[in-house]
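Table S5 (text form). Sequence records supplied for joint modeling of the two-component complex.
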Amino acid sequence: MSGTLADDKLASAGQLRLTWLRFKRHKLAFISLFIVVLFYTVAIFADFLAINDPHATDARRGYLPPQAIHIFDTGGPYVSGMKGARDLKTFKQVYVPDPNKKLPVTLFARGYTYNLFGLIETDRHLLGVSSPDPLDGIYLLGTDALGRDLFSRIMVATRISLSIGLASVGLSLVLGILLGGMSGLYGGWVDLFIQRVIEVIRSIPTIPLWMGLAAALPNTWSVVQIYFAITLIISLIGWTELARVVRGRFLALREEDFVIAAELVGASQFRIMIRHMLPSFTSHVIAAVSLALPAMIISETSLSFLGLGLRPPAISWGILLQDAQNVQVLAGAPWLLLAAVPVVTVILAFNFLGDGLRDAADPYG
Amino acid sequence: MLMYIGRRLTLALITCVAISILTFIIIRLPPGDFVDAYIANLASTGSTVTAEQAQAMRHEYGLDRPVAVQYFLWISRVIHGDFGVSMMWRRPVTEVIGDRLWLTMVVSFAALFLTWTIALPIGIYSAVRQYSIGDYVATMLGFIGLAVPNFLLALILMYFGFRYLGLSVGGLFSAEYAQAPWDAAKVWDLTKHLPLPACVLALAGSAQLIRIMRANLLDELRKPYVITARAKGIQEYRVILKYPVRAALNPFASSIAYVFPYLVSGSIIVSLVLGLPTVGPLLLQALVAQDMFLAGTIVLLLGIMTVVGTLISDLLLMWIEPRLRLTGRS
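The corresponding structure-token record, covering 695 residues in total, follows.
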């Protein structure tokens, strides 16, 4: 009995629900979904998770190696205070833990002031130390040349890198649905023209093109203006794959019985598109989007890495990796490469997620 | 067949025109024109240009004419091989670029070749031994190749080379050959330096191709003719290599058209990290210094060479795929 009940439920389930049911069976994709959600949570609460002011520089703590939090101690968790010294052979700045100085780590500590969600002004952070000396702090992933805390910078960079990916993909999606939809719906010379445009765009090497366009942005532009310009540049070149998916679905659906039936009862073209066709390819579009997102994130990271994308004081993963460009620097401060970890993780997660969604999007496949 | 070649050639031509228009836009994007930049450049060295001289220069370069006319003036000079003068180097652009363009192509083609030699056997293996450990390892490597941007891979390799092997892995030539004229020894030196950048570039591309090859071959392996071949007692490797692999090769070969631009594009950024003497570092310098004729020329030439490379791969595809030869469509 219960079997038939479940079957009944399945038979009446909508396309999105069917997709979700199939998606849940794909373990790797399901885990990836959690990772992606986690990343966006970090992006939203970036300032709260950051420990030190990501912009605060101090030459006295440049290239400080990563510090560990000692958890089990009679006085509760603490980090050792660090003493700067000179290595008399190489004249490099080295740091040694100061055994007499234990900085107790507290939860919801007070730190720099920021606006949560851009609205609520607060100075609470997840972790922090209470110490009168401004040099003291927790540097979980070490610091860069200017003594800025890498951990806090990675947290804050997540916000820009992920949101620029999302914004670019949103813009590409609008272009892709519009042009791909036109291409699939009208066919004929419109289709031919749009397909040729896509082929032309895809046969041009993208990085030189981006570089050329990005380099032309005036130096006087503000961070926000550059942000939107870069979004526009990335999506102007990235919409082709989405358009291809949308066109393919339109072409496939145009021949379906239910679309012809809707046409025969005299539904308007707009109604057929929105009411009948759109719901049955939403999941395909979602899958295509989650496969397009990592490419957008790589684009931004590459451009910023080259120094042509976002510019400091903006913080993105690409900008953090820019500091790690030089092998000599890396040999002295290998922890700067840690900024690559979130990039690789989120790209992998999006790829698995997209793969799982694509498999799930076709419930009868 | 002629129709197919004709269609490809027309498309290649249209693409070249599109690239030239984009290049022209890039050259004109920065505020001020070529003459403004030239005057500013001269002023920095102490010499001055009068307003009349500036006006004369503008007239000579056609900068006082409508944009469309300017484009045609520029493109007709380009077709005659005159790409303008590099502001930064004060030499003709073609001289500045020199060997670098060819080296870019050498690196990209080496990467393409490697992509194929990696992807083909691994793709076949993954399909024939589906769900084996080797298949999972290949899939995993494929995903990592997809997820690690190639400049990052170059950076990591360089770091490990420097840290643990004490090598400076980079460049395309040993120091003694960098300025030397071309001879057999220099070519050999280049061959020795090529594998690293080629590997870095090939990883992401082959990750994609492995998945395409695997999927295609899996479809073919399920077809009845494979069972027939087996039933007739043909040796297993012949069954696979002679029929399904050849059938699966077609979509695989056509994807080359998308992989090649991707490789050229990647070579730019990888060159910067590995310090390769390709056009990559030059392009970045030119863009930062707003040396627009140099930058524009590089973008234009890269684009056109990519189109030519893609065209060659299309002709190769025609050779592989009899259906294209006979009917003009696949």
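Note: The radius of gyration of chain A is 26 Å.
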